[in-house]
Amino acid sequence: MPNKNSKGNTKNRIIESAKKLFAEQGYQKTTVMEISKQAGLSEAALYEYFQGKEDLLLTIPDLWVSELIKDLKEQLFGIKGSFNKLRKFLWWYLRRIEEAPLDAKIVYLFLKTNANFMDTEVYSNVKILYSYLIDIFEEGRTSGEMKPDLNPYFARTIFIGTMEHIVTRWLLKDMSYSLFDNLEDTFDLMVDAYRSK
Amino acid sequence: MPNKNSKGNTKNRIIESAKKLFAEQGYQKTTVMEISKQAGLSEAALYEYFQGKEDLLLTIPDLWVSELIKDLKEQLFGIKGSFNKLRKFLWWYLRRIEEAPLDAKIVYLFLKTNANFMDTEVYSNVKILYSYLIDIFEEGRTSGEMKPDLNPYFARTIFIGTMEHIVTRWLLKDMSYSLFDNLEDTFDLMVDAYRSK
Amino acid sequence: MPNKNSKGNTKNRIIESAKKLFAEQGYQKTTVMEISKQAGLSEAALYEYFQGKEDLLLTIPDLWVSELIKDLKEQLFGIKGSFNKLRKFLWWYLRRIEEAPLDAKIVYLFLKTNANFMDTEVYSNVKILYSYLIDIFEEGRTSGEMKPDLNPYFARTIFIGTMEHIVTRWLLKDMSYSLFDNLEDTFDLMVDAYRSK
Amino acid sequence: MPNKNSKGNTKNRIIESAKKLFAEQGYQKTTVMEISKQAGLSEAALYEYFQGKEDLLLTIPDLWVSELIKDLKEQLFGIKGSFNKLRKFLWWYLRRIEEAPLDAKIVYLFLKTNANFMDTEVYSNVKILYSYLIDIFEEGRTSGEMKPDLNPYFARTIFIGTMEHIVTRWLLKDMSYSLFDNLEDTFDLMVDAYRSK
DNA sequence: AATGAATGAGTGTTCATTCAT
DNA sequence: TATGAATGAACACTCATTCAT
């Protein structure tokens, strides 16, 4: 069971093991011994790579969210129209979550509980990620696609709220259905709030 | 510090103490000893009233959400118009949360992490609470206030998502501003998605 | 289940409850609360009748063994011949144990573990009980039925050892067979050790 | 007092410490902390070697009885005559008990109380140990030394009963005299029960 | 780079017992 | 005679973390 021979170096093995166990059992119930055993090395060795258990919890989504940021710019590149960009953002984000549900579970369920979440690299990176939405809404207003008096921040609240609700529900229901079920309809409904009449 | 003389019986004292400490420090970091000391009795005495720490965690929001359900019906009674009802629901809910931020914190931040959350009384009560929204959206569609093809479930996803996002952000930011800031504008924006043109 | 209405006074109800529970689960695993619940009263009330749990453990077999002593004299009265008396002793003793297996279990399995057993009334009463055997063996030697050089103490060691072994085995095997199985043959074999040739 | 430097590895140190304390104070009254302190290490370290307190209780006599079995065959080897073998068995057994009174105390006083005793490796090993006696009695009958109609099982009941009674009495009296006092006479008396006339 | 061995500090929970009423 | 309420004192067991090798 321990993925001793999986490709990737030791550090990655540890991350993957921790990710899996955190997602499965939660942060508190997962022991360092379980993680190291799963990673195929000793507990002591784990401390050569990470400062401790909490460090591990914070590192995992940090890597993931960093990647997301890098990816997002490229994804939105060349897309014309604010609604199209909005749609792209949503579909892209959910695709990434579907591809990395363990990371998502950690961010959405376990990290928010952590007292230090707000001081986290992850938090500020998520803020960066979500700041793109402000640009999109502003572009929509400027271009006339969206309401002329649209407040981008309020618009974003609705967008993120809806999106995160969809994700959280899916995670809590153990990813037992497709994240994209009814997405089209819900999106169409939501954007009507932004659309200029 | 221990509220030995606070009104209410012992059981309530324990609940209030636990609520406060869970909300302040999180479930895991709070010890049974702290709770009992805060409640002004011995650790052993606490076990006369609750089966244990987890029982306490689950009981607290259970009581709160049960009350909410009782209250909601009355609050919506006599209100005319689906948009008015929607508005009432939102304002009422946020008011209740503002009044009981400790309960809210437990439900929104700590309970969802708990592996057993989905099997909880709280979860099913929240579902009941949110089922009222379906009725409201259906009424809106029927009455012609809302789009004739409005799917109440998708509409609700947006509504709950937005609402919970507002609440969660507020809780994570340590309730440092008013929950009602910008609420009017955000609500107005959101309901445009439902409104028949 | 609690035998609130059983005949006998409260003290007896407590004894019977304790006896049952000690025998079923052992002394250590039985709690005072279980005993008092079984007896149909509160924990605190139990302390009106007994000094505590250990007092209870020691009282139970004390009563039983006291009764045994009273009975034994009568049982042996009028029996002629030392072998007949020996036989009577054995059959009588096993009958009493069969009738009161709970008491027997407590004496044989739980009391011996107790650090204070040797200072117990029970211990000295058992000594009295077993002292009758010395008389019997001496009578046997004097009468010529038994070996002229028979040492009553060594003879008794064999008798008691055999008897207690039979009892202990039966108790450990959960009284799943008759205590009298093969008793006749074993007795006949044993007494050949005493018989004068 | 802690035997940190005693020869033997850590596991053995723990066993010896536990053995001593169990025998002195009983199983229940001995705490894990006492055992580990006596062994010269931390409580937590003890759990690296044993699963817990009960595991320790069961392991101790397990090792001892296993050794006994290995030894017995060798001890009986080369001895001629069933009475001689019987005598050897008794003397050997008591010698072993005299050498390891702590183990004996645990087996005779504390283990039998344990609810799981009958499912124990120790129990089945003791059965093996005692099965040799059946062979001896059968040999005695066949060779003519013993009664032609001697039932080996009944004979063994007397033998084991007597032997265990001698041991138990000695243990309860805190090993304050020699286990071999009067052994010769008692043995001679007992075997007359088996002897063919 | 890796680990066997060890531990300090905790942690929830149990339970016999007491006492005011 | 009875008890509801309370508690002091334990206690077995866990686990993240350290360090000599």
What's the structural blueprint in terms of helices and strands?
4 copies of one chain form a homotetramer.
Chain A: H1 10-25, H2 32-39, H3 43-49, H4 53-76, H5 82-99, H6 101-111, H7 121-143, H8 152-172, H9 183-191
Helix pairs in contact in A: 1-2, 1-4, 1-6, 4-5, 4-6, 4-7, 5-6, 5-7, 7-8
The structure holds a DNA duplex (21 and 21 nucleotides).
Explain how this protein is built:
The structure is a homotetramer of 197-residue chains. The first copy, chain A, has helices at residues 10-25, 32-39, 43-49, 53-76, 82-99, 101-111, 121-143, 152-172, 183-191. Chain A has two domains: 1-50, Homeodomain-like (Arc Repressor Mutant, subunit A), CATH 1.10.10.60; 52-191, Tetracycline Repressor, domain 2 (Orthogonal Bundle), CATH 1.10.357.10. In chain A, helix 4 packs parallel to helix 7 and helix 7 packs across helix 8. Chain A has nine helices and no strands. Chains in contact: A-B, C-D. Chain C binds chain D through residues 25-26, 28-29, 109-110, 112-113, 115, 117-118, 150-151, 153-155, 157-158, 160-166, 168, 172-173, 182, 185-186, 189-194, 197, and chain D through 25-26, 28-29, 109-110, 112-113, 115, 117-118, 150-151, 153-155, 157-158, 160-166, 168, 172-173, 182, 185-186, 189-194, 197. The structure holds a DNA duplex (21 and 21 nucleotides).
List keywords for this structure.
DNA-binding; mainly alpha; homotetramer; Arc Repressor Mutant, subunit A; Tetracycline Repressor, domain 2; 197 residues; 2 domains
